Amino acid sequence: MTTSRKLGATVALGLLALSLSTTSASAEPYVFELEKAPDGSIGYPADINDHDVIVGRTADRAVKWYANGSAVDLGTFDADLNANARAINNNGVVVGQSGIRAVRWNTNGDIDWLPGPAKQCAANDINDSGVIVGTCDDSYNSFAVRWNTDGSRPSLLPPLPDDTRAGATGVNAEGLVVGWSANAAGERHAVAWSNGTTVRLGTGVSAANKVNDRGDISVTLDGHAVRWNLYTGTSTVLDTRSSSAEGINEYGVVVGSVARYGTTQAVRWEDGQATALPPLLIDGSVNVASAVNSSNNVVGVSHGRGVRWRG
User: Fold this and answer.
1) pLDDT in tens, 134-181
2) What is the pTM of this model?
3) Enclosing domain of residue 302
4) For residue 274, what is the domain's CATH number?
């Protein structure tokens, strides 16, 4: 990796969360800049699996970074001019978008088109069994979709009864899907699809992002990072400041960002504490964490560059 930095920046939970814990957070993290893509472009990571393999994009290419830091271009479907990798499972299968199509990059190098109910689709997540979820859009509507492991035409996941559109963003090993449902005015509500039912998470403006196998869901609710558990019906406000919850790992560790002094700070919430993830440069640049794996390795963007935080 080309750049690294360490910064002790653990924020006391008394400022942030409603749930208290005396357990200390993990070691203070280091930040590493990801290698550039094969064409020399800066990459922006979206996801990391438990083998430390990272996927994301450049301005127009889907990219995978191996654990040793090397980067490869995943290619596009047919003659598409651009692609975007959005998620990778622990078997190394990647999903995302090529042109305006949802696609799956298989481990043998094949790229599969995932047909959808609208002209433009994107696959947003995949579990280890190969179930894929995403969102399809046409000129009038958005549809939350779920593809089975064979990638055949997806099933539609309905919005809430009073809403008109929906999108799916995460799926766990049991097939629990999370995402958002929106009304005609565009106001979004965090939802989960469980046993054929669309369940609303909270009462405010919100969106659910990812879900782990314990049913913990990363949710941004009324401008605050929240961890929600559908199985127990409990929720924890992780931060009382303006914040967003993006990724979550199998231990319930959540990553995202907090608004600070006109910019954003990447944050990891764990064991009742919030740890600020150090930027590449201390210059007020935007820093956002997007995903975290079971080893607490985090990926995101700092100072306009793709980064990984370790520790």
Assistant:
1) 999 998 899 999 999 988 878 999 999 999 999 999 999 999 999 999
2) 0.90
3) 4-310
4) 2.130.10.10
